[in-house]
Design goal:
The complex is a heterodimer of chains A (883) and B (113).
Chain A (H helix, E strand, L loop, with lengths): L1 H14 L1 H25 L4 H12 L2 H12 L2 H19 L1 H30 L10 E8 L13 H5 L4 E15 L5 E8 L3 H5 L5 E2 L16 E4 L1 H8 L9 E4 L2 E8 L12 E4 L11 E6 L5 H18 L9 E7 L9 H34 L1 H9 L4 H37 L15 H27 L3 H6 L8 H37 L9 E7 L8 H16 L4 E6 L6 E7 L9 E7 L3 H5 L3 E4 L4 H6 L3 E5 H4 L12 E4 H4 L14 E8 L14 E5 H4 L3 E8 L8 H11 L9 E2 H44 L1 H9 L4 H30 L15 H27 L3 H6 L2
Parallel strand pairs in A: 3-8, 5-7, 14-19, 16-18
Antiparallel strand pairs in A: 1-9, 1-10, 2-3, 2-6, 2-9, 4-7, 5-8, 6-7, 11-20, 11-21, 12-20, 13-14, 13-17, 15-18, 16-19, 17-18
Chain B lengths: L11 H13 L2 E2 H11 L11 H11 L2 E7 L5 E7 L1 H26 L4
Antiparallel strand pairs in B: 1-3, 2-3
Helix pairs in contact in B: 1-3, 1-4
Classes of the chains: A alpha+beta (883), B alpha+beta (113).
């Protein structure tokens, strides 16, 4: 009983020390008085009795300390004293304190902001229950060219594996929404009915799809769960959406639930529908599993491989003939942020780390300068017996307190910074589900970073101050006191700052160069004035290839006549559908592939692609679905050197053996005749080399969905959106159109990631430069103020002002030059990490380096010049009169 | 001189204070210090101020309780008195001390039989 009671009382005494402290003083006073009285009674004079009483009692302060020790918790007590003392010291020099706090706020704020992005995008992107235990099943061919995609009928076999605690499957469809709302296509994600339980995210409203939605006959209840965005768009966020109906692909579905905004399973603005076990028209599903407890991924992969082998034996026709490998990928690793974005974020974290280090060095510098003026105070404390450790802790408390205040301010800055970063972030590289916010883990990170920063920034100055030779400090005159050593440390710190800033600047300048280089790349098409939309051609209404072609022709004819429309085509200049090919007269080689893309006769005009040789196929050929084609230059290079592809024939596997579900007329064989060669376009993205493509009349393939491209005669192409939609309704009131996007936007997507990297790096490098400049400035100003006396003497002895100016500038220049050289050397290593982020620029790009040297030189000159001018302006008489 | 002073074992001061309060009744710090000097054959390595840590420890454990009163010479002083719990604790501590010192005696003086 007594010990817990004591602990509690000690704690109370720690919280409210005032009363106990007064009580103790009163008690000791009484004690001393009694002692003195006793000695007086023995005949001592009052003065002698007073001294004798003191002697008998022993050290009053020691007794009090011992009692405090017993009464309260010493380390806590000391901490409180240190904090109070630090707060008082810091508030005595508000200018320096403010500078230090702001510096730290910048460093910690930037670090927290980047960490919150990393946390939201990479570390914890999903709202799904135990997302780290979700695995995706992948089957790749041995040569990694292709893979097997599961068909729904194979799912029961996978389910049999005891390695899986549960298995769900999903597939994506484009569904036509008609009826009450204006017709459009939305993304429909089909899910096995157990999927919502599997993912473990509760709905915002209503309920999710559940196993009971599967009827005994294998069909499913017509229910749909809608995304938060669709809910806002169609129902303006009204709860009455539950129970309403949507007409999807001609069937009426009842809305049973609305998901929260962060739920984005394969769509963030579409709908989720139950996948009926008896559906035969679904071509592929993606199986997703949770491993049973205690089953390792390796063991699960082994079981899965065995199951796959069996499935491949049963249906060899749909499994890769050349053999395959089975892998399980953790869902956290298959996020879209896995590639470029993840790498970019990692580099950015490194960059803010550098920024934070610069901030640390700056604060250490400010603290050192403060330490010099406080050298006497500390020396006095040390010489009257203060414990060195205690002084060290005291000084560290000061810098940690600074950095905590800076960190708090930094978190506020981070709130703002995140807004900007998220706006700049490339949407395609960020999972639908991820949310970037300042949450508890981010705050914990900021707190940790603040404490560590405080310790790092405080270590050097605290160590310097606490180990000062007290007798030297106390006897030295004020102007020369504690000089040399601190000065050298401060110079080294500034050099480090400059070097770090140089590395940041070089990196930033490379990203800028890369971005500029990317902007210069010719996409090969005239990207302005083209509006793109998906045109679904309902398979149930347009059953045959001829019907579909006729419909498309009608759309093209009617839209071309609209005012402001220059031309209309179908298809997109992308890489196309990859297929093996054989050029007439050559041996068949299935390992080589070419892309097959569709086009209309007006394709080149619509996209602004130049014709190199031969001709484009004409509308009569398109109408007849003639087996003609044009190739891009890269594809033309596949022909043997010296042979003109024009007039030759090439056999395309896609046409010879069309996959199930495509309406290609295989009876006409796989051969097409090349009639022209068109210029290459960046069909693989701006940063990739063009890939070989064969363009065929769209009428050959008879697809159930095509890209509709409309070139405006002038101006902004999105102005055509409404007339185009109106005309489509006039053609067929039931005909939907997908969401519109401009061609320029598509190419812009390629630029977003480099722009993001560039913007981030430039900002951090800019901040780093400013902080380094502040460092240079503060060291030189400090030097001037410490050496006013010396400078005055020199000038009194006849040194011209010019010489003083040169002296000071020389001092600054030395710091900057050494820092610059070290930084440039370090950059060579550091920028190697950047190489795959800076497409089209070598890491050793000379222009990038020259730009950095120029920028740093200019800023450094300014930072040196101001204090140097002040030095040169010293009045010798005033300076000499200082002590 | 200093080498002849008896160093107090850790924790023994608490026991001595409890014992003194139980035999003498309520006492102030000065009274306790005077008493300790009186009974000791050797001078203690004890500054009177050292008592305060022990008094605080005991009071926080609830074994003694301090109240401000007047001395015979009409000065104010804080008198400490043993509480009920303190009496019990004294018994336990004395018993512990006996066992411990018995053991130490045996170890130092060697087997007596």
């Amino acid at each position: 009983m007594s010990e817990p009671r004591r602990a509690w009382r000690r704690f109370l005494a720690f919280l409210w020390p005032g009363r106990a402290e007064r009580e103790l003083a009163r008690e000791i006073d009484a004690h001393l008085a009694q002692l003195q009285e006793t000695f007086e009674r023995r005949g001592l004079s009052p003065a002698d009795a007073h001294l004798a009483a003191r002697r008998a009692f022993g050290g009053v302060e020691q007794a009090k300390e011992a009692q405090r020790d017993a009464r309260s918790y010493r380390p806590l007590d000391e901490l409180r004293q240190n904090v109070t003392y630090a707060a008082r010291t810091l508030s005595r020099t508000p200018g320096v304190t403010l500078a230090a706090v702001l510096t730290l706020a910048l460093g910690i704020g930037a670090t927290s902001a980047i960490f919150s992005v990393i946390y939201g995008v990479v570390l914890d992107p999903y709202p799904y229950a135990a997302a780290d235990r979700i695995w995706a099943v992948r089957v790749a061919t041995v040569d990694r060219q292709d893979g097997h995609i599961y068909s729904p009928v194979e799912l029961p076999a996978l389910r049999q594996s005891p390695a899986f605690a549960s298995l769900m499957a999903t597939t994506i469809d484009s569904v036509l929404m008609t009826g009450e709302f204006s017709p459009e296509t939305v993304t429909g994600v089909l899910l096995t009915p157990n999927a919502f339980d599997f993912l473990g995210v509760p709905p915002l409203l209503g309920r999710t799809i559940r196993p009971a939605d599967v009827r005994a006959d294998g069909d499913v209840e017509p229910v749909v769960v809608i995304s938060h965005r669709l809910w806002l768009r169609l129902f303006e966020g009204s709860p009455s959406a539950i129970g309403r109906t949507l007409r999807l692909n001609g069937r009426t579905y009842t809305i049973v639930g609305v998901m929260p905004p962060r739920f984005g399973w394969y769509t963030s603005d579409g709908v989720w529908l139950p996948l009926a076990p008896n559906r035969t028209d679904v071509q592929w599903v993606l199986p997703i599993v949770r491993l049973a407890p205690g089953v390792s991924p390796d063991a699960a992969t082994a079981q899965l491989t065995a199951i796959n082998r069996r499935l491949a034996e049963e249906r060899p026709e749909i499994w890769p003939k050349q053999g395959f490998t089975t892998t399980l990928s953790n869902y956290l690793d298959v996020t879209v942020a896995s590639g470029e974005m993840r790498n970019s974020l990692r580099l950015l974290l490194g960059a803010v780390g550098f920024l934070l280090l610069i901030a640390c060095a700056n604060v250490a510098n400010l603290q050192l300068a403060r330490g010099v003026t406080r050298g006497r105070e500390i020396a006095v404390r040390l010489s009257v017996g203060a414990d060195r450790g205690r002084v060290l802790r005291q000084l560290l408390t000061e810098s940690v307190l600074l950095s905590l205040v800076g960190g708090a301010l930094g978190v506020l800055l981070a709130f703002g910074a995140i807004e900007v970063i998220v706006a700049l972030m490339p949407e395609n590289y960020v999972p639908n589900e991820s949310r970037v916010t300042i949450n508890v883990p981010v705050l914990a990170f900021s707190l940790g970073v603040s404490v560590i920063t405080g310790i790092i920034a405080g270590l050097v100055p605290a160590w310097q101050a606490s180990r000062a030779d007290t007798s030297q400090v106390l006897t030295a005159s004020r102007s020369t006191g504690a000089g040399k050593h601190g000065a050298r440390t401060r110079s080294v710190l500034v050099m480090v700052e400059v070097a770090l800033a140089v590395v940041l600047l070089v990196s930033a300048s490379l990203t800028v160069r890369a971005f500029m280089a990317l902007q210069q790349i010719d996409p090969g098409v005239q990207a302005d004035r083209v509006l793109l939309m998906n045109l679904p051609i309902a398979p149930e209404r347009y059953k045959t290839r001829e019907q579909r072609a006729a419909f498309a022709q009608e759309v093209q004819r009617r839209l071309s006549r609209l005012a402001g429309v220059e031309s209309v085509s179908f298809g997109f200049p992308g890489t196309g559908r990859q297929t093996p090919f054989t050029i007439a007269g050559q041996n068949r080689d299935d390992s080589r592939r070419v892309g097959v893309a569709i086009a209309a006769a007006e394709h080149l005009r619509t996209y602004g692609i130049p014709l190199r040789r031969g001709r484009m196929f004409d509308s009569a050929e398109v109408a007849r679905a003639d087996r003609v084609a044009v190739v891009n230059e890269t594809a033309a290079a596949l022909w043997p050197a010296g042979q003109d592809p024009i007039g030759t024939r090439v056999r395309l596997e896609l046409l010879a053996n069309p996959p199930a579900g495509m309406l290609i007329d295989a009876s006409r064989g796989g051969d097409v005749t090349i009639v022209g060669v068109v210029a290459d376009t960046r069909n693989n993205g701006l940063r990739e080399a063009p890939s070989p493509t064969v363009m065929l009349p769209y009428s050959i393939l008879g697809q159930s969905s095509m890209t509709l491209a409309v070139r405006a005669a002038s101006g902004e192409p999105s102005r055509l959106l409404n007339p185009v939609r109106a005309e489509m309704r006039a053609i067929d009131a039931e005909q939907p159109l997908g969401r519109a996007i401009t061609l320029a936007d598509i190419f812009d997507d390629d630029v977003v990631q480099p722009r993001f990297t560039m913007a981030m790096f430039s900002t951090f490098a800019g901040l780093g430069l400013v902080l380094a400049a502040i460092g240079i400035y503060s060291v030189l100003s400090f030097h001037v103020s410490r050496h006013t006396h010396e400078l005055g003497l020199r000038m009194a002895l006849g040194a011209p002002r010019r010489r003083v100016l040169r002296l000071m500038l020389g001092m600054g220049a030395r710091l900057v030059l050494i820092g610059l050289v070290v930084g440039l050397v370090a950059s060579v290593g550091a920028t190697r990490l950047l190489q795959n982020q800076v497409y089209g620029v070598r890491a050793a790009d000379p222009i990038a380096y020259v730009a950095v040297i120029a920028a740093l030189g200019a800023i450094a000159c300014l930072a040196c010049y101001v204090p140097a001018r002040r030095a040169a302006g010293v009045d010798p008489m005033v300076a000499l009169r200082q002590d | 001189m200093a080498s002849e002073r008896v160093e107090l074992l850790q924790g023994t001061l608490d026991l001595i204070v409890l014992r003194a309060l139980s035999t003498m009744g309520p006492q102030h710090a000065y009274g306790l210090a005077a008493r300790l000097e009186q009974v000791a054959d050797h001078p203690f390595a004890l500054n009177q101020g050292t008592l305060y840590a022990a008094l605080t420890r005991l009071e926080q454990k609830g074994w003694i309780k301090g109240t401000w009163q007047r001395t015979e010479s009409n000065r104010e002083a804080k008198y400490y008195a043993l509480t009920k719990g303190g009496g019990r604790a004294l018994g336990e501590q004395v018993e512990r001390w006996r066992r411990l010192s018995g053991l130490v005696d045996k170890l130092i003086l060697g087997p007596s039989s």
